[in-house]
Design goal:
Structural class of chain A: alpha/beta
CATH topology of the largest domain in chain A: Rossmann fold
Shape of chain A: elongated
Oligomer: heterodimer
Shape of chain B: rod-shaped
CATH class of the largest domain in chain B: Alpha Beta
Number of helices of chain B: 7
Distance between the termini of chain B: 150 Å
CATH architecture of the largest domain in chain A: 3-Layer(aba) Sandwich
Number of strands of chain B: 16
Strand content of chain B: 15-25%
Radius of gyration of chain B: 62 Å
Strand order of the largest sheet of chain A: 2-1-3-4-5
CATH architecture of the largest domain in chain B: 2-Layer Sandwich
Number of domains of chain A: 2
CATH class of the largest domain in chain A: Alpha Beta
Strand content of chain A: 25-35%
CATH superfamily of the largest domain in chain A: Response regulator
Order of helices and strands of chain B: EEEEEEEEEHHHEHEEHEEHHEE
Order of helices and strands of chain A: HEHEHEHEHEHHEEEEEHEEEEEH
Helix content of chain A: 25-40%
Number of domains of chain B: 3
């Protein structure tokens, strides 16, 4: 187990290292507002020296053309634009593979949708640290896959009505989709999160447990312990007393911290 | 053996029995030990009436046979009370107690010393029942009882129906009241919502953060003066919007200043695309004219976002204010954008939620303002067409009573 993890990290390091040395990340910026394009280009040149902005467009049709022409590594894309909006642009360039980073001023719903689909995003005004982190993720991760975009689009078609049934989990070599009801519990592992799924499957996602918690706590999940986020629908037994714990559907015992005991009872009561 | 003075000389065998039937007479009638004095002699009285509470009485009688009268025998019967004759020896008294009301025949007979019985002497005794035992009283009481029961029942029923009716009326009244309250609340809610949306359409977070992002560009470029300049304008706009959204009316100066700042911010964001002009007729005193706040901005926003933005080269939005009549303000918002038809086409293609709080919201708000102040603010939208029949923009005219 430990060896495996170390190997994984070594591999990751090599992968990053190679990328840093050998390639520049080629970026396209599409935003209808010239200042927004200017700001992003400026910040990238100041703080992300390995990113080369090969095209920036304030016109969505030109943006589509640029993506088709240049086959970029990453596209920074605004959602709301006259003529073609962000999604229409993505549809128009469906065959091209790149990492996608949405740039948006404000949209609570959109942010949630991005997270469920593990699609990266930046908020305006641009925070330099967030930009650097996003670029780092772009550099180490694989391209945004069509499944993610489809998942994202599905959420936009019926906004605010239903929660998606599946969640996209980014891992070292790509993105996996899992059914939320199959998640038994999530375990914190440094900055990553280990997902324990039904039928004994596991998944190590490159997201912190805190990020996962933000998404799933509105979906019958509860952070019962610093280390664990559990699916309340998978609880088999709840043992109260000194050192409370729950037994999950896969027979795993999860400790419940003193602080979370009451909250669990509150939610467990109506479940 | 005894000898009577009369049969002094006779022998025992000579003595003939006395076969004369004696006569029996009543001697007194006592009620509770008090003799009853009648108008007539007791013996001539056929019927004696006694009250129900005089039912303890004694009848005294005597056989008119005086020879060896101690040997006289008596028997009596109160027919209806006694089942048979009561022999009472030589004691000429019949005592009755607690005789129920009714009609009785008191019969008595007596015998002389030789056992020859007299004829039966009869007297009717009628004990008058108390009124409550009389049939008529009972009938009356029964009727009364029945009627009382019926009356009570009816009263109860009536009371219940009345109560039910009152309750239903009360419920109806409450319902009406609740409906009224609801309507009132809905109306109030609508007012506040519309006010809120008016506020939000200018304080739209999307707009705010985009402005800040734009200003951030100037700082990133080290263009401190520009950044400072726009930051000041942006702050003024936000302050005005916050203040105005709380007022029912603001001066025209105030409203036009808000409008100008808003357009300037959009022009900052899209320098090549948005130019503007605001003209106010010289005779208008903008400081004294008051209009509802944030009324014009949505129309200008609409003109910019659905008219100018869809046009590659951008365009101009013109606002002109005139006072055609004393009490009517005439505001024209003209853009040379793509026109309503094409804008609608772009809009229908958009897959995301529309952020623009366009005409619908403003129309609702104007309707509400008209309701509230009993005014007639009107909006007139005209598609502008060039000489070749092609769309060349939109003209919105707003008539605001002042």
């Amino acid at each position: 187990m430990r060896m495996e993890k170390r190997k994984e990290r070594e591999l990751l390091f090599t992968f990053r290292f190679n990328k840093y040395i050998h390639t520049m990340t080629r970026a396209i910026i599409i935003d209808d507002e010239p200042n927004a394009v200017g700001l992003l280009a400026l910040r990238l040149s100041q703080h992300c020296s390995r990113v080369e902005v090969i095209a920036s467009c304030t016109n969505s049709h030109k943006g589509v053309q640029a993506i088709l022409d240049h086959q970029p590594d990453v596209v920074f894309l605004d959602i709301e634009m006259p003529q073609l909006n962000g999604f229409q642009i993505l549809e128009a360039v469906a065959g091209v593979s790149f990492s996608l980073v949405f740039v948006t001023a404000y949209d609570k719903f959109a942010l949630k949708a991005f997270r469920y689909s593990a699609v990266d995003y930046l908020l305006k005004p641009i925070d330099t640290q967030e930009l650097i982190q996003a670029v780092q993720r772009v550099e180490k991760q694989q391209k945004t896959v069509p499944e993610q975009l489809e998942h994202l689009k599905q959420q936009f078609i019926s906004p605010g009505k239903t929660f998606p049934n599946r969640i996209a989990l980014p891992y070292q070599n790509g993105v996996a989709f899992v059914d939320i009801k199959d998640i038994i519990y999530c375990e914190s592992d440094d900055n990553y999160t280990k997902f324990h799924l039904s039928e004994g499957h596991h998944h190590l996602a490159t997201k912190s447990l805190r990020e996962i918690q933000e998404l799933l706590e509105e979906r019958d999940f509860l952070r019962v312990h610093r280390q664990y986020l559990i699916n309340l629908n998978h609880i088999k037994k709840f043992v109260k007393g000194e050192g409370s714990y729950v037994v999950m559907s896969n027979q795993q015992t999860i400790p419940v911290s003193r602080a979370q005991k009451d909250r669990l009872m509150e939610r467990f009561g109506w479940l | 053996m005894s000898f009577s003075s009369r049969n002094f000389a006779s022998t025992r065998s000579d003595i003939k029995p006395d076969t004369t039937k004696p006569e029996v007479v009543f001697s007194f009638l006592k009620v509770f030990d008090h003799e009853l004095h009648l108008l007539q002699s007791l013996n001539y009285t056929k019927t004696i009436d006694l009250n129900y509470d005089q039912n303890f009485f004694a009848v005294g009688f005597s056989a008119l046979s005086y020879f060896q009268s101690e040997r006289n025998q008596y028997a009596y019967q109160l027919v209806g009370f006694n089942k048979d004759w009561v022999l009472c020896g030589n004691k000429p008294l019949a005592v009755f107690s607690n005789v129920s009301p009714g009609s009785y025949q008191f019969q008595v007979k007596g015998s002389n010393n030789d056992g020859v019985w007299s004829d039966i002497k009869t007297m009717s005794i009628h004990i008058i029942p108390p009124f409550w035992q009389t049939w008529w009283f009972r009938a009356f009481a029964f009727t009364l009882l029945i009627s009382v029961v019926i009356a009570l029942y009816r009263f109860q029923v009536e009371r219940r129906t009345l109560k039910a009716r009152l309750e239903s009326e009360e419920a109806k009244r409450r319902q009406i009241e609740a409906e009224l309250n609801e309507k009132e609340a809905a109306f109030q809610l609508k007012i506040s919502q519309t006010e809120m949306s008016a506020l939000r359409s200018q304080m739209n977070p999307h707009f705010i953060f985009n402005c800040l992002n734009s200003i951030q560009y100037f700082t990133a470029q080290n263009d401190a003066e520009k950044a400072s300049n726009y930051l000041t304008k942006f702050s003024r706009l936000i302050r005005l919007v916050l203040e105005n959204s709380k007022s029912e009316r603001v001066t025209l100066t105030n409203e036009l200043e808000t409008l100008r700042l808003y357009i300037e911010m959009e022009a900052m964001r899209f320098q090549q695309k948005v130019s503007y002009a605001i003209e106010v007729a010289t005779e208008i005193d903008t400081d004294s004219i008051q209009i509802p706040p944030l009324l014009l901005q949505p129309f200008v926003e609409n003109a910019i976002w659905h008219g100018l933005m869809h046009k590659e080269e951008g365009g101009t939005v013109q606002v002109s204010v005139q006072q055609t009549q004393d009490n009517l303000l005439h505001v024209e918002i003209i853009d040379d954008g793509v026109g309503r038809q094409q804008a609608a086409e772009y809009k229908s293609k958009s897959a995301t939620q529309n952020k623009s709080f366009g005409m619908k919201l403003t129309a609702e708000r104007i309707e509400l303002i008209n309701q509230l102040y009993h005014t007639k603010t009107q909006v007139n939208v005209v598609d502008l067409i060039d000489e070749n029949g092609k769309a060349k923009g939109t003209r919105v005219t707003i008539y605001i009573p002042i």
